[in-house]
Amino acid sequence: MRLVAILGSPRLQGNTALLLREVLAGAKEAFASLPASGPIREMVYPGAGGAGVQEGPAEPDGSEVKAAAAEGGEELEIEVYQVNRMKIKPCQGCNRCAETGHCIYHDDMDRIFRAAEILDGLILASPTYFYSLSAQTKAAIDRFQSFWARKYVLKQPMPDPAKRPGVFLSTAGLPFRPEIFEPSRAVARVFFRLNGVAYQEELLVCETDKVPVQKNDEARKRAREAGRALIRSWAAARAGS
């Protein structure tokens, strides 16, 4: 299984990043418990020093899961893309992708594009700033205009969302209000639908200015369960295919 996580926070030790870490820990736990599960590998881009790919966990997550659950069997490959540290030009609205299905720019988005084409599960993690996704997250999503062109202009087939579960997670410093996450949620849903990913679950955590994720036991517990549920959904879909 290839699980892709897009981290749109500029704070790599912030609330959103910590929440993502818990989701990934839950996913590792659930995968390791599957029959005939194989090695678990995590790759982070950019790697240490800002270049290339860093193999192994980006940060200790406290999980007791070993790097290799067993010899042989299905592998879990986790790819984490830290978009704030990537070279991503903003979409120019040139519409050239409507002719080719591909963006005219070739930068670090090429890695995310390749991952999106072959992923089995997706996690989108972004803080909510001014009632919307972070600028870094939105810049990456806007570049998926080329995927929109493939699907709606060029009529190319897209993956079956029933086989590709997804989780959206976001944090906000403000106390809870019903409208805080609505704009972020709307963009995330469209992004998942475009990429043939089921919007399986969302984890939205408010008031992190007062109670950071590190001190929010309930939020971390829910995050781990979201990761477990994602793996269970993937395994069920795979068994039924």
Task: Describe the global form.
Answer: globular
H/I helix tally: 7
* Average of per-residue pLDDT values: 90
CATH superfamily: Flavodoxin domain
CATH architecture: 3-Layer(aba) Sandwich
Describe this structure in words.
With 241 residues, the chain is α/β, with parallel strands linked by helices. It has seven helices and eight strands; from the N terminus they run βαβββααββααβαβα. It has helices spanning 15-32, 97-100, 109-118, 135-142, 145-153, 182-194, 217-240, and strands at residues 2-7, 37-45, 54-55, 74-82, 121-129, 132-133, 165-171, 198-205. The protein is globular, with a radius of gyration of 17 Å. The model is unreliable at 53-71 (pLDDT under 50).
In brief:
The protein has about 240 residues and is of the alpha/beta class. It has helices spanning about 15-30, 95-100, 110-120, 135-140, 145-155, 180-195, 215-240; strands at about 1-5, 35-45, 55, 75-80, 120-130, 130-135, 165-170, 200-205. It is globular and about 50 Å long.
Layout of secondary structure:
Layout (H helix, E strand, L loop, with lengths): L1 E6 L7 H18 L4 E9 L8 E2 L18 E9 L14 H4 L8 H10 L2 E9 L2 E2 L1 H8 L2 H9 L11 E7 L10 H13 L3 E8 L11 H24 L1
Parallel strand pairs: 1-4, 1-5, 2-4, 5-7, 7-8
Antiparallel strand pairs: 2-3, 5-6
Helix pairs in contact: 1-7
Observed structural traits:
8 strands; 36% helix; alpha/beta; 8-stranded mixed beta sheet
